[in-house]
Amino acid sequence: MDIVERINKLKEEKNAVILAHNYQPKEIQKIADFLGDSLELCIKAKETDADIIVFCGVDFMAESAKILNSDKKVLMPEIEGVQCPMAHQLPSEVIKKYREEYPDAPLVVYVNTTAETKAMADITCTSANADRVVNSLDADTVLFGPDNNLAYYVQKRTDKKIIPIPEGGGCYVHKKFTMDDLKRVKSKYPNAKVLIHPECSPELQENADYVLSTSGMVKAVLNSEDEEFIIGTEVGLINRIELELEKLGKTKKLIPLREDAICNEMKKITLEKVERCLLEERYEIKLDKEIIERAKNAIERMLEIK
Ligand code: SF4
User: Fold this and answer.
1) What is the CATH number of domain 86-170?
2) Does CATH place domain 3-82+266-286 in 3.40.50.10800?
3) What pLDDT was estimated at residue 100?
4) 255 falls in which pLDDT band (50, 70, 90)?
5) 48 is in an annotated binding site
6) Cα dist. 1→33, 114, 141, 168, 304 in Å?
7) Residue 174 assigned to a binding site
8) What is the Cα–Cα distance from 29 to 306, expressed in whole angstroms?
9) Domain map of the chain by residue range?
10) What is the CATH number of domain 174-262?
11) Pick from 37, 3, 13: which is nearest to 281 by CA?
12) Could you tell which of 113, 173, 240 is best to mutate to test the pocket of ligand 1, judged by most ligand atoms within 8 Å of the CB?
């Protein structure tokens, strides 16, 4: 048996399911039962009747799966170096400071945050629903963190006053992209449609054909008549779109805005680690009960918004 067959056998024996984020390496995407962005995986985690969830992604995603499935075993194939740096940019002391300054403003946090941060929020959001989440709130001023670029994206789509917290918060991968990158790639592929993730700078957002979450990008490419696309997000998404195109027997030209837009934390998972994870049932995500309850309210409130 090869490693993929062994993983599938273990999965069946243990009634396990593998959830993988769109930025995972190609070989991991291929063995996943469900592939998606944070919102899609949150929904899948809530719906699954598996006993074990193996989460191939970064720390906050596996935590979200645990928050929504406190009775299930949630495992990560790796625990070292899988901490999303942005998810740790809103610790409790920073939140307390802003809460004191804006006592009447609800706090919206990106799902790319730790369980502790979510537990202090009124509601969570993803890049696929951030504007809808903010528009659903009965308040004129909203605290929004930790991604300042996503806050800009939301500000453009709502009449509310958005206070981005903390200053300078954001994703190091998406901050790499510059207007020079766009000019360089666009001069080579002048007819390509430009898809930019809302974690990218305001300037890039303003110069995109579409500003979309990763799931939005997948749908845009699959449903479009266009043949060439410049992809302004982590390069792993190109594998995901190619897998979907393959299923439809189609090919399109997908050009990374930068070849080196790589999230190191997302690339720590390997097939060998997934197999070991299933065999030894480690590393298990454990969270405090009270944190789970409070964070769950913030996530479930988001999931109610259509
Ligand atoms: S791409 Fe950015 S936000 Fe996403 S996991 Fe990596 S560091 Fe975190």
Assistant:
1) 3.40.50.10800
2) yes
3) 97
4) very high
5) no
6) 20, 38, 58, 49, 44
7) no
8) 27
9) 3-82+266-286, 86-170, 174-262
10) 3.40.50.10800
11) 13
12) 173
